[in-house]
Amino acid sequence: MTRHCSFPGMGSFPLWGKAGMGVSSLLESGAAGPRPNPPPEGDGATQPLVRAEGLAMSFDVSPPLLNRILERKPRQLLHAVDEATFTINKGETLALVGESGCGKSTVARVLVGLYQPSRGRFFFKDQDVHAALAKGGRELRRGIQMIFQDPYASLNPRWKVADIIAEPLHEHGLVTSKTEAQERVAALLQSVGLAAVDMAKFPHQFSGGQRQRISIARALATQPEFLVCDEPTSALDVSVQAQVLNIMKNLQRERQLTYLFISHNLAVVRHVSDHVGVMYLGRIVELAPKRTLFATPRHPYTRMLLDAIPKMHDTGRARTPVQGEVPNPLNPPAGCTFHPRCPLANARCKAERPALQAIGGVQVACHAVEEGRA
């Protein structure tokens, strides 16, 4: 049975059991704020603000040394991210999508410096970020901030909101007095739709959506240019997701912010992104402008994901479920890692790993697309 909910300034809208369907309809009706600006036309119209070149991140998941010696087992590495290459222009949004465990959040942590990449480089404003962070890199840290997935875990429950938001201001020397810090905190809270008096409260006194707004205010404290958003709305209910997305789009428009938006909800990604990268087992398998990817997906995995999205105008039509299971990342298949689940796989797919290459205006890693079979 369909239920309806009203929200001030947003009208009445239906709520479904699937969060993606509710958010999709809210966004389509305009409740989630303005559409993203179209990407600039022409070569060289905008220089990339963010550039990742062959980023890779491996984790040593080997058993203890003594166990390996006694059991004669080699070291075991988990390749969470492998050869991730992309660019993001200033003021635009790149969304990374894929199934759980594909490496999206690891990419986010590498970009903000929480992980040192195993290989590859990441440039922000033409500066090698990890080389700069090794020497301190305070200015770069101010320019790159992160919004975490869980607003319940990312805020210190023992601190008041004023202390949480003011911490980066004091850490980077952006305020010189308590009064100035309170004024900045009040302005930041108001920019995300909260009241200045909320600074005296503790995180447990807020709802999930309000906590995420506090997280956004904290991320904006250092006036960054690049925000890494790791599934910022996945822990929120449908109507609150629309509010938070609305705030993020308005802030992007007002401050020319650049986003890396990580999500598994393609219905949301379709409305907030300019470009979309699809990840599978640590690799980007397709990278394309949003409209192109949703209108004409090239990689079989992208098609599989899009076929699984519930669509309002296809009510009653049988949807194609995502086939198969993700292989064990500790022992991935040879060749193309998607070939056990791919209906177009042949002998070449099982033996040779495809490289990400430009084909027909998009970047795709697929032998079937390269050979014209897809």
Secondary structure layout plus pairing:
Elements: E1 3-7, E2 11-15, H1 19-28, E3 48-60, H2 65-71, E4 77-89, E5 93-97, H3 104-111, E6 119-124, E7 127-128, H4 129-134, H5 138-143, E8 144-147, H6 161-171, H7 178-191, H8 208-220, E9 226-230, H9 238-255, E10 258-262, H10 266-272, E11 275-280, E12 283-289, H11 290-295, H12 300-307, H13 347-351, E13 357-359, E14 362-364, H14 367-370
Parallel strand pairs: 5-10, 5-11, 8-9, 9-10
Antiparallel strand pairs: 1-2, 3-4, 3-6, 6-7, 11-12, 12-14, 13-14
Helix pairs in contact: 1-9, 1-10, 6-7, 6-8, 7-8, 8-9
In words, what does this structure look like?
The protein has helices spanning 19-28, 65-71, 104-111, 129-134, 138-143, 161-171, 178-191, 208-220, 238-255, 266-272, 290-295, 300-307, 347-351, 367-370, and strands spanning 3-7, 11-15, 48-60, 77-89, 93-97, 119-124, 127-128, 144-147, 226-230, 258-262, 275-280, 283-289, 357-359, 362-364. With 374 residues, it is an alpha/beta fold. The protein has two domains: 3-39 and 50-286, P-loop containing nucleotide triphosphate hydrolases (Rossmann fold); 296-370, no CATH class. Strands 8-9-10-5-11-12-14-13 form an eight-stranded mixed β-sheet, with helices on both faces. It has a four-stranded antiparallel β-sheet with strand order 4-3-6-7. α6 packs parallel to α8 (208-220) and α8 runs parallel beside α9 (238-255). Mean pLDDT is 85; it is low at 1-21 and 24-45.
